[in-house]
Amino acid sequence: MKIPALLKFVLLVVIAYLVFKAPALLMGKPIPASLAGVYLFFTVVVILLVMTSTDKGVSELTGPIYRVSFEPGLRPIRNVIVVALPIIAVAITYFSIAGGEVSSVKLRTAHPAPPETFAAYGKRVKTEKLTNPYRALEESDPRVFERAVKDGGKVYFKNCFFCHGAKLDGAGHYARALKNPLPQPFKGQDTIAQLSEAYLFWRITTGGPGLPAESAPWDSSMPAWESILSEDEIWKVILFVYDYTGNRPRSWE
Amino acid sequence: MKLYRKIILLAALLMASLSLALSGGSATAAGPESGKAIYVKRCAWCHGEDGAGDGPASEYLNPPPRDFTEVSYKYKSTPSEEMVPTDEDLLKVIRGRDFGNGEGHGAGWTASMPGFGDIVSDDDARKLIEYIKYISDITDEEVPASISLEGRIPSSEESIRTGKELFLAKDRCTECHGKLGRGDGRKRLKDDLGYRTWPRNLTKGFSFRGGNKPEDIYTRVTVGIPGTQMPSFADPASKRRLTEEERWHVANYVASLNKPYKKPGDFTAIHAIYLDGPLPGGPLDEGWSRAPYTSLHLFPQIIMETRLFTPSLDTLSVKAVYNEDALMILLEWDDRTLSDPDDKVSREIAGGAHYPDALAVEFPMANPSTGKSSTPPFFGEGDLEHQVNIWYWRGTEGVTEESGGGEVKLYNAAGITKRKERKPEMAGVTARGVYKDGTWRVVMKRPLRTDNPDTVIQFDATTTLPVAFALWDGSNLERGSKHVLTSWHKISFKQNSGYGRLIWPAVAGGFIIILELVWLRSGTDDRKTNDPLHKKP
Amino acid sequence: MRLAPSKKAAALLVTVIITALTLLLIAPDSSTYAATEREETEAALTLTTPGETTGLSGINLKDGSKKGEIDRAILLDRTERKQVKPPELTAKDYRSLGPVKRRTTGWFLAQIHLWFAAFVLAVPIFVVISEALGMITGNERYDRMAYEFLRISMTAYSFTAISGILFALALFFFYPGLMKYMTRIFEDSYVFYVLFIFLENAALYSYYYGWKRMRRGTKKKLHLAVGIWLNIMGTLIMITANAWATFMMTPGGVDMAGIFQGGVWAAVHNPLWHPMNLHRFVANIAYGGSIVAAYAAYMFLSAQTRRERAHYDWMGYIASYIAVIALLPLPFAGYWLTAEIYAYSQQMGITLMGGLFGWIFVIQAVIIGALFLSINYYLWCAMKRNPGGERYTVYIKYLGLVILACFLVWFTPHTLILTQAELTALGGPYHPVLGPLGLMPAKNIAVNILIIGTFLSFLLYRRSGRRVPAGTGSANYLAAVQLAVILSGVVNIIIVGVYYGYFTNSVYKVASSVPQVMTTLAVIVLTSGIEYYRYKGVKAGSRSRWGRVPERSQYALILLAVSFTWLMGLMGFVRSAIRQHWHVFSVVRDASTEAYTPTISHAAQVVSIATIVFLSFMVLIFWLNRGCGEGNSGRRL
After folding, report:
1. ipTM of this model?
2. pTM of the model
3. Is B267 on the interface with C (CB under 8 A)?
4. Binary contact (B302, A162; C-beta < 8 A)
5. Which residues contact C623 (CB under 8 A, 6 or more apart)?
6. What is the mean pLDDT of chain A?
7. Number of DSSP helices (H) and strands (E) in chain A, helices first
């Protein structure tokens, strides 16, 4: 049986909608509404483009609409639709306005550009020249390196895991109180694997107060660890977060 | 056409073999060592290399991590005289998602241990259990059966009433959990290792580590929580023992104590409600019932020295109302102690010298949505460029009376070390608090506008406004920088008129009607040219 | 040519005003700029190793360790050496004009000027190509089209001049302090600029007015040479102005203390100059193509006769073809530009790609995707031109699916825009499914397959105009090989992308894009080769019936031009805005009240309004040309 083009269009849009809803329904991990809206929009556009790429497609798609609009015999259906459309529009608008708390969208940059130089431990350091003194040991002396990683783990579990989590997933036992922003996770490919060790050093030493305005420093609970941890401890904890999550720091070459 | 198919098949085969090669062999070795490897990677940081509960993190956790060499497991389902838990009990804690309504151990509400179900597979969890039992010297023959939940009595009004009587009788539960179950007992508690513990607040169901469904609660009442002062009420030797049936009634009653509003929600805006008339008279006024609660999660101050790692307060519930003249905020939180320095019971619970409970509310000095700068101050007492107003209240005199008491102080701050006291009269802030049955209710009130808009926030009832809170529990020895707090939340002023929400729907409806008219008219006037079916270039 | 006197007047006016301004500014300057000592010296950076090279290019003259380089640059520089200390600007160094917003005005005028300039520089390029094609093929059509293109650009030329004057006036009026500094450095180049404009003017008028007279034989060849000369002059004008703009981003010839040492050549030959020249040159061709295609679409839609329709259908096809061909190498030119920005200052680079402006790249991705969609739709619709095109319409839905999938991956952002509820549900700003798709490897895969998909649309379009080759064994065999090449190419792109992108460290991540691009190119070249061989000797079907394309396809061409315009404006904003609070990056600080980065929404508003204004002017120009009579077809049918 051949499905009428208009019905086919509606079905395809419904299927696309369900596909974009699937991560929310099946995994509890919704695609953000801002993005899902754009996805759906372009999917509808492409479906329309494909369906109208031939004259036959255009007439199949729009034919029923014209018939319902202008054919004298279809007046009852037409009347129902003419009345129903404004009511649907009113209802959608009303409920989208009254639909409870409007949760504002957060345009916060999680990983802003680091400054060219910054002050740490009484010195000015140049971000791009900064390297982890322990990183070279990974090749040259793996046993010492492993010990440094372990030391880093101890630093992590005495200072960081309250917020960033025992699983390094940004869900420590105080994280629930820090909704805006949530503590950064380290696991996954799209977190610290995109950053250099110097970047982490900058973020840890200067903390929330060191963030630029686009990253909302006023909301960040991250301390400037320079006052609590030593330089050595910070380099070691950086080793640990990469090691535990199986990520590699980014290098520029 | 056959050739096409062959090529497609070939390409598919190539792809499949490559993806197999990439995924690599994920074969795992079996044996006790494999359990140890997982243990060292995931568990040793808190529970210690040897399982003695002495990992690097242990000293920052209250309650401390389990000591596996001691065989004292808190959340188990075997009878109280048995020390050994079932494998399923351990699996539940490791996975951390099988409790009650998903709000138990591992859900991140009160226990420090997260659920590892997302990164440790069930197979690996079983290996871990084998390893933990090996450390604890538990052999499989020893593992007893779980207690039976067969005799379950469904919750009913009658059961809850019976449960309540049993709860109150003989000071059975109230000694620690308080009359209304808010954890406001009269006893200082400690666990077997001497660490201080706090009785559960039974009105906060989400905070039950062992789960909050009646069968979870029944299990706790029956088994107790080993290693703590929560006893088994099935113990025949106990004077307060309960029969199986009675324990179900108590469980039903405890489950009924849950106050869902106390659980912090995802949306953290505080809705200030417009009142056409006078504002509520005090903390206990009926008028407050017109405003909704917003509950916020609190975290201890671990940003700068001296830090607090063992908080006793976890949530704060807020209401706000306003009229043409003033804004009034109600802050309600459960605190297990009054923390009156002169009170003997308070002193006993605190274990010596302690301080009054206190509260602070913080606003930016200039409203970021209307003021010159669109950025708010740093939530921790502002920064040099953006100052904050702080309303500080301390529960000193008169707080046990109906009408409330306490003292107010006002500060402006430009950073944690740059705080300046101001006279309360300057901004017209008044505050009164009452402590009753384990709950503080404090109201703070201020005119919407003041004479000194340059140094004091003006409440413009058309915008949202950042607000942050801090609390001190004096009997937990909190004062100065040791306290719990929130970061910025928002107060949004709900408008009194309801017309605004009708305008846009009307516009949308009208727009559609106009479109329809234009469309239908175009068809009747000149159908042929508008219908692509009939149009030929 | 009724408009000619006004055009001449405008051109004369430009020349006079620019000369006057130059003379005014070259005059010796009595005030001296206070020398500023840098507060921190490199020596204080104890954590860093002194003597290390900074950038990949090694052209960063600001680094102390590059002293030798400076000397070499100065030695190579034959122009007169001078020392210019950077001015320490204060609020007094800026003029204001009532409620007129200084920055927005300058920005708006610059943008309008750049669009017109891009258009008038690009059009002569394919006017010449088209004229040459006409000469080679002997097909009059090309010559007619070339003349018509040129006529459009003549009108646009006066708009370019007027907007350029307004822009220059705005700069000198609002930013006297900065312009004084720039003039001190670049005064020598101003002379060249004026000279190039004179020469270009001369060439343009001879070329345009000589068209009819120099139609045959040697004269025609001479005419073509004039056209080439015109293009050379136009390009020289562009690269001179590019030097000024790129100097502000990556100042060359400036020492550690920010003092300019050396001649004008050192300033002109700054690290970003060549990447910018290339990027703008290629982008201008693509842009000019898209505008001409939109013109053709506009003329097609308003055409009165079948012949006009056929002509403008053909013109739209050729122009969009050129636009797409020029669009393809653009990402690589962009890559070079970005790499040089990173090499000069990593901070500027990260601001560009990872920081606040990261959002604009999401918008960019959406627009580029929209460009691809427009092109594909145009090709699908255009199959109607060819008798027998229906045979291939069944494949459109599969192409649509592939292109949609690639497009969605292509614009999935790395940093998601989340509401509080979503943030809580995800437990952080990362998504388990979208996260990996937001990374570069996924985008590389998507864009390569997108290009292959578009190529296939084009292949189908080409085939729709031909007869099916006879079903012999070897032809079938070739078809299978062709399919296998495409399939294995796609598989290779995916495997290389996934393996190197996600399972190795970052060094290989970047490197993996090269084999992917090579694969794409190989697929296109091999498939085209086989296609040529397969259809060789097969009789072509009846000729394309130009003008029979459906009207809706023409809207795709108009969308192409609108997207291009908007995209250029937005990316131009980003390139300029990454200087942040500097006029000249790390040398001259912006001390005006607008020394902050505007919000993205403000930028989008300014660019959108400018786009509307510019396109309105373009429509006006198109309309003026219509009024001028149908030069191409000669007579109404």
Report:
1. 0.84
2. 0.69
3. yes
4. yes
5. none
6. 85
7. 9, 3
